[in-house]
Amino acid sequence: MTKPGFQRAYSSEHKAQRAADLMEAARALAARDGVRGVTLTAIAQHAGVHVSAVRRYYASREEILLNLAEEGYEDWSRAVAAQLSRRSNLTCGQLTGTLVATLAERPLFCDLLTHVTLSLEREVTYERVRTFKHAAGNAVAVLTGAISTASALDRGQAQELVIAAIALTAPLWQAGHPGETLARLYQEEPAVAHIGIDFEPTLTRLLAALCDGLTRN
């Protein structure tokens, strides 16, 4: 429901604040309920506006969630670069440990990575997906540079490691964080928990193996 006393934003400052409020509402809902459960109606209710008001700022829920994914890429790349700054000769274990730990600290971003390729990129305008791809590419470049400076990997190998981390995070995060129904099934029938993924150690092990293979080439 719209909050009592709600007023339409007219000034540029108020419009910017309203847009930020809607993004924060989406962020809070996605963190609480998962990306899949976020709707425009829920965003509007959480922000205290009518759902029609949301469309004055964002064309769709996919655009809002893609904004969050873009923020996630930038935030993750900055965190990794900061942790690897002024370090050198890192082992594959140290390097992949940093990548995985910084991802695990960002559960919303991990959840978003699944939905980016499945739906979010497919349901926005050309201009919006182009902006997102450039932002994601810039983040990958930052990660690549930080990794190649801090380890024995060259830029090409570092980029392959980053791409693998992104590609593996999406399914492993979902498998390691099953919904309520699946969690109940796995608890009651352990035999059908076919993979039994624990996100951090599984991703760390796979990336370390890849890193080790890259350094041997």
Automatic annotation (TrEMBL):
Domain of life according to the entry: Bacteria
Organism: Streptomyces kaempferi
Pfam family, one: TetR_C_34
Name of this protein: TetR family transcriptional regulator
DNA-binding region: 39-58
Positions of the HTH tetR-type domain: 16-76
PROSITE patterns to which the protein is assigned, alphabetical: HTH_TETR_2 (PS50977)
Record InterPro entries: Homeodomain-like_sf, HTH-type_TetR-like_transc_reg, HTH_TetR, TetR_C_34
Entry keyword set: DNA-binding
